[in-house]
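Usage

Read records sequentially. Each one opens with the input sequence:
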Amino acid sequence: MSVFIKTARQQEATKIMTSHLFTLLEGGSRSGKTFIYIRNLIVRALKRRSNHLVMRKYFSSVKRSVWYGTLPDVLEVSFPGFIEDVHYGLNKTDFFIKFRNKSKIWLGGFDDEKRLEKLLGNEYSTILLNEASEMVFNHFEISKTRLAESSGLDLRLWVDENPPSKKHWTFRLFHKGINPDDGTRLIESEKKKYGCLRINPEHNKSNLPGDYFGILDGLSKRKRARFRDGLYSSDVDGALWSNDMINSAQLQGEASDWLSEKAQTVVALDPNVAEDKKKDEDFKADEAGIVVISKDNRNRTIEGKALVEADYSGKLGVTGWAKKAVWAYYQHDADCIVAEVNQGGELVRQMIKAVDKRVVVKTVRATKGKHTRGEPIAELYENGQIKHAPKLDKLEDEMLEYVPGITTSPNRMDAQVWGNTYLFLGDHHEKIQSIRVR
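and closes with the structure output:
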């Protein structure tokens, strides 16, 4: 059986979290942040009869990552013989762990209103906000009000995250000493209550397989900065999508957890009209955008949730994008291909039908500028209604870098906008300027 030994960075983290009321551990993935938090939380629970809470934005995420992941790992590695020596019970109905001294560690999500009401009825000695990059400042504020248990332990509120953008409340509060709610600066006595430490995979190297660093090195530049180097990102001025919006859109867990029912699936196509070339080295065409999106509301209303499932965009000639779009149509059992026809007119429909006349094609024509078309979809992202499956780096980079009127038109992003416009607004896509998301 392996024996837990704190890394040097985890020793630093422990000193900070024991000496500050509020602690933020930030950094790359698999760096040991959540592990050391859960371990120290258990140590506190064993010292005195007390209540402790671990929260994520989504209950399904905390159940998967902490209940079935970090918590049993910590118990096995850090507390060998724990079952025999320190009797405990797992309550799989209310999701808490109970110790012999009657201490409890509860798990919850801010999205589960029924359980949240019950959890917020308790008072706690320790609260951990796990993956706070997904949370809003109000989640932090609400948690502070429940940090009120008189157990004899010093009250502690802990936060961890892979750093989002510099506009996120965690960066403003812990690094700049600014209240994200009203923009006022914390007074010196308040600033001393906040501690912060960056922990990266490099600091946890002894506990990770060597191949993992090769995986991190293979990520896109933006994701390497976040998940390997633990750096906050800066948004592009004027862009419709921010880093925080994209980070929040990245699916955590299984697609079925987010989209329990696929009511409608579309292949969104933003074609080019370049001629086909026989030799790849002679091919200079722009990319054709081909993106697959599913939504849980067949009536195509502004309500509901959507998942961007796949991106098959590439430098394809007319025949190439038509074949690829039809392939995606059958691969994802789509209801239709939504194709933009501004450049090619009926050529787009004809080329798809030439590949397979059975395919259902819906054509759309842009009469508004890209900013006007994209803005309502960006608001849907801001509302948390659209998620992204993994491995959509190129699409996400286009969304983050596109500035209306300044950067060139990105085809992947256009396909995504067309697909979501059709799914959320249906045949009213020409009226999107007048529609606002609630």
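Summary fields computed downstream for this record:
- Residues 100 and 414 are 58 Å apart (CA to CA).
- The chain is about 35% helix and 15% strand.
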